[in-house]
Amino acid sequence: MAIQTINVGNIANDGTGDDLREAFIKVNDNFTDLNDRVVEIPLSASNIGITGQGIYADTVNNTLQFKKLVPGSNTTITSNNETVTISSTGGISGFLVLTQNGSLTVNGTNHLELEGRQNITTSSANGAVFFDIDPTNLVQQDTNPRLGGPLNADQHNIVNVDTVSSGSFLGNLTGLVHGIDIRDIHQYFDTDWDFGRIINRQFNSIIEYIISDYPVDAGGLIGDEIRDVNIDLGTLS
Fold first, then answer.
1. What pLDDT was estimated at residue 162?
2. From CA 190, how far away is CA 171, in angstroms rounded?
3. DSSP-derived secondary structure for 128-176
4. Separation CA 111–CA 93 (nearest Å)
5. Which of 81, 83, 117, 212 is deepest in the core (most CB within 10 A)?
6. Domain residues of the chain, as ranges?
7. pTM score, two decimals?
8. Closest to 176 in 3D by CA, of 153, 193, 198
9. Which of 77, 73, 78 is nearest to 92 (CA)?
10. Model pLDDT, residue 122
11. ∠ at Cα 160 (155, 163), nearest 5°?
12. CB-CB neighbours of 210 under 10 Å
């Protein structure tokens, strides 16, 4: 039904408008029509999301009630017709750094300094911190170096060695000793030695021994070579 208009006449009490009863009939009909059109919807609100703190508190008498935002330590809250701004005034107040030999609280008084030690230097660039390790003389600086696995010299020489000792463990040392492969003489140390008979003689060299106990063939001397050859066979007894 359309809204009914009350006829109020041209001037007061001229008798051309609706009488009092007819006017209130129209008023009642208009309110009835409005009431039929209105569907009552209860007001409610909710906080969405599964984390964080909600700002909706309750609804009382169709009034939505919300919690206030209160600034905490080192923060401020400002607002306008469209936004609410939460600002940090002091940044992080401090944090705790733990080490193997103590701890440090970094705040406005104490600062964290990254410094290098032996063969390690630090630097910074473009917002990053770098640790640079200098490998020079690292082994030399270790007074008791130990290997966790085989040492591969990668075809390089090991020089200025004093004594090679295997300690309580037996192992193999491979490579050349003064350019000689010791495996070539291993056969002489892995068999029983026969020193032959004992001769009651005194030898000053292995040459004397060989000459005294073995036949020696000096070969033949031919032509002019005889003049240029000196042979000292030592003393034969």
1. 78
2. 16
3. EEEEEE--TTHHHH-SS---SS----TT----S------TTS-----SE
4. 12
5. 212
6. 1-39
7. 0.31
8. 153
9. 73
10. 92
11. 105
12. 12
